[in-house]
Amino acid sequence: MESDLVRDLVVVASSSRGGSTYLGELLRRAPGTLHLQGETNPYVDVADGEPSVLSAVLGVDIGRPAEEGDGEDVEETLVWRLQLQWPDLDLDREQILRWVRETRAEVPFAAGEPFHVRLLQRAGLNPWYYDLPEATVRAHFPHVPKPSGPPGETVHEMSPFILVRPWRRATPEELATQPVVLTTPRNSFRLPLLRRLFPNARVRVLHLTRHPAAAVNGLVDGWGHHGFFSRTVDVPLRIAGYSDRFPEWGTRWWKFDPFPGWRDWTEAPLELVCARQWAAPHEVVLADDGERHTVRFEDLVGPRRAEVLASLADWLGVPAVADLDDVELPPLMATRPPSPERWRARAGAIVPALRDAGVTELAGRLGYEL
Question: What domain count does the chain have?
Answer without folding.
Answer: 1
